[in-house]
């Protein structure tokens, strides 16, 4: 309902009637503090977020200006699948004049979350035979996932099935997405050595036959003793059944040399000495 103000004034003495002046309110309320457009960043993958703002107010020359409607209130949860939201406040005075405050809420999606490296291998330990300088290591390669779907392998320092030197080698897989976020998968390949090879015997004598005078029980027999070599350098004579220049009775005797290394690997040299009358 429009607001009219009627004032009555008496005319001059020569007139016999009154004049009436009527005022009409056609001016809308004045809005204060209408928010500027709001830009909010939100992480990729989140469904939305709560947005808040300071609400506008209004005043009017009539002294009365009320909020007649608002599309959304501060503290409302807004879904990110809407690119932008229009917020409207409408104020009204008693004469029906209205004023609107309109601003926009814009969502800007950002991706600060790195890719996820999946199935990153645990440390790999392989052993090669003592004396070898490298070994071939293999593993199931990791993969990656990312909310953006743009993850990709940028580099890997080593591939499975390639030779690795003795000791520890760090293997690194680097993944990235289109926003430049990176993730790494890091593990260690250790190449150790084991000694499973027995020493190598050098100069193991061949079987030999010696003759003695009829009626004697036997004779002294001599030979050049064997030696041994091992890659560990720890080979040593563990035992021998007979020594050169030992007395052998008539008949056949097996002579045994046993060599061992520090890993417990054993090599045997055996030959036969036969004494005949």
UniProtKB/TrEMBL annotation:
InterPro entries: HYR_dom (IPR003410). Keywords: Repeat. PANTHER family: FI04643P-RELATED (PTHR24273), HYALIN (PTHR24273:SF32). The keyword Repeat applies. This is Putative hyalin. PROSITE patterns: HYR. Residues 24-109, 110-193, 194-277 form the HYR domain. It holds the Pfam family HYR. It comes from the Eukaryota. The keyword Repeat applies.
């Amino acid at each position: 309902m429009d607001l009219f103000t009627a004032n009555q004034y008496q005319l001059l003495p020569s007139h016999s009637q009154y004049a009436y002046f009527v005022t009409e309110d056609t001016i809308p309320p004045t809005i204060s503090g209408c928010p500027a457009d709001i830009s909010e960043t939100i992480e990729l993958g989140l469904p939305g977020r709560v947005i808040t703002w300071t609400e506008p107010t209004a005043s009017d020359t009539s002294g009365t200006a009320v909020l007649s409607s608002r599309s959304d209130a501060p503290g409302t949860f807004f879904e990110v699948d809407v690119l932008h939201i229009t917020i409207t406040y409408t104020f009204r005075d008693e004469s029906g004049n209205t004023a609107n405050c309109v601003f926009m809420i814009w969502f800007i999606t950002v991706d600060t979350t790195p890719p996820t490296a999946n199935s990153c291998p645990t440390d790999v330990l392989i052993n090669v035979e003592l004396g070898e300088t490298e070994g071939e290591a293999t593993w199931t390669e990791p993969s990656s996932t990312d909310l953006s779907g743009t993850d990709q392998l940028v580099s890997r320092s080593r591939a499975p099935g390639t030779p690795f030197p003795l000791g520890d080698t760090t293997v690194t897989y680097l993944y990235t997405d289109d926003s430049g976020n990176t993730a790494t998968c890091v593990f260690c390949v250790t190449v150790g050595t084991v000694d499973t090879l027995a020493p190598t015997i050098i100069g193991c004598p061949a079987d030999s036959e010696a003759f003695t005078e009829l009626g004697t029980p036997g004779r002294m027999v001599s030979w050049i003793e064997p030696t041994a070599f091992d890659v560990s350098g720890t080979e040593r004579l563990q035992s021998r059944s007979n020594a050169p220049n030992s007395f052998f009775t008539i008949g056949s005797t097996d002579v045994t040399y046993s060599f061992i290394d520090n890993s417990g690997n054993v090599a045997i040299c055996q030959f036969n000495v036969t004494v005949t009358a």
